[in-house]
TrEMBL record:
Belongs to the NAD(P)-dependent epimerase/dehydratase family. InterPro entries: Epimerase_deHydtase (IPR001509), NAD(P)-bd_dom_sf (IPR036291). This is GDP-mannose 4,6-dehydratase. Residues 8-244 form the NAD-dependent epimerase/dehydratase domain.
Length: 313
């Protein structure tokens, strides 16, 4: 296969996850065409990648179907990461539906029309809503709660439509709680990490609502990027796949991990109030079977690295 056939079209490629995926693609001799409106993208980092000669940036928006169709021409495969965040989708459902639903459709329709070899879609564990049991399996009931989650679920359904009607080959990656270097400090899942670390650096104990039993499945962005590349290259396709560690880390456990990472001698304080206790942990059997992927970075190691990095920046 010549390199001209191995150009990957990456929407949202200048964002947090994209900036970890693109270097991995370059290591594997792909060319990359980033399609990003640069609203949150890192222009300096993208400029460095463009300077390699194997990356180009199309500064455009997935809401414009014609722009997507034109920009995708000649691309062998597609990675669709562009989306509006979960918090923003509640405060501005109009923009969320526009970007996450219309944008999804523009990308999927263009990929189906142009006969790309594979489309990898960044879905989300939020499609499950509040899980009835752990670990969460891909065949469990879906009950998305916000416009963001609803759009992620409908994206998977749309991919099924284009698979049936146009033969589109796709993998939908249901990312759990992504964290790691380069993430905006305002990000939904890292706000608790940042809040704890900021207090610990001041020698103050982290404050936990309730008993700290609410949990997340924290998955490092490097492992996320590896799953995207694995999905691009896997022989099996046309299924949603959970991408997490399979371990639910409670907020109380997270506080202990971060206390050790920062190296302060404090105990967390608990704020007694009613908390809707939600727990998350991925069943990652399918990720191993379909993608040959499993996580490599433990929560302890990942959080330690994050604390070290934030200390130097």
């Amino acid at each position: 296969m010549s390199s001209s056939q191995r150009t990957v079209f990456v929407t949202g490629g200048a964002g947090f996850i994209g900036m970890h995926v693109v270097p991995m693609l370059l290591e594997r001799d792909y060319k990359v065409r980033i399609f990003d409106n640069m609203f949150r993208g890192d222009r300096d980092k993208v400029a460095e990648l463009v300077a390699t000669g194997n990356v180009e940036l199309i500064d455009q928006d997935v809401r414009y179907g014609g722009a997507v169709q034109n920009a995708m021409k000649g691309c062998e495969s597609v990675i669709h990461l562009a989306a509006v965040s979960i918090n923003k989708s509640v405060s501005d459902p109009y923009e969320s539906v526009d970007i996450n639903m219309v944008g999804n459709h523009n990308v999927f329709a263009a990929a189906a029309d142009q006969g790309v070899r594979r489309l990898v879609y960044a879905s989300s564990a939020s499609v499950y809503g509040d899980p009835k049991k752990l670990p969460m399996h891909e065949d469990d009931e879906l009950a998305p709660l916000t416009p963001y989650c609803i759009a992620k679920r409908s994206g998977e359904d749309l991919l099924g439509f284009y698979e049936r009607t146009k033969g589109l080959s796709w993998v939908g990656l249901r990312f759990f709680n992504v964290y790691g270097p380069g993430q905006k400090t305002t990000a939904y899942y890292t706000s608790v990490i940042n809040h704890f670390v900021n207090r610990l650096r001041q020698g103050l104990p982290p404050v936990i609502d309730g008993k700290g039993e609410q949990s997340m499945d924290f998955i490092h962005v490097t492992d996320i990027a590896r799953s995207v590349v694995a999905a691009l290259e896997s022989e099996k396709a046309n299924v949603p796949v959970n991408i997490g560690t399979g371990i639910d880390t409670t907020v109380a456990d997270l506080a202990k991990i971060l206390i050790n990472a920062v190296g302060v001698d404090v105990e967390p304080t608990f704020n007694p109030r009613d908390v809707l206790v939600s727990r998350r942990a991925a069943d990652i059997t399918r990720a191993k079977e379909v993608l040959g992927w499993e996580p490599t970075i433990s929560v302890e190691d990942g959080m330690n690295e994050l604390v070290k990095l934030t200390a130097t920046t």
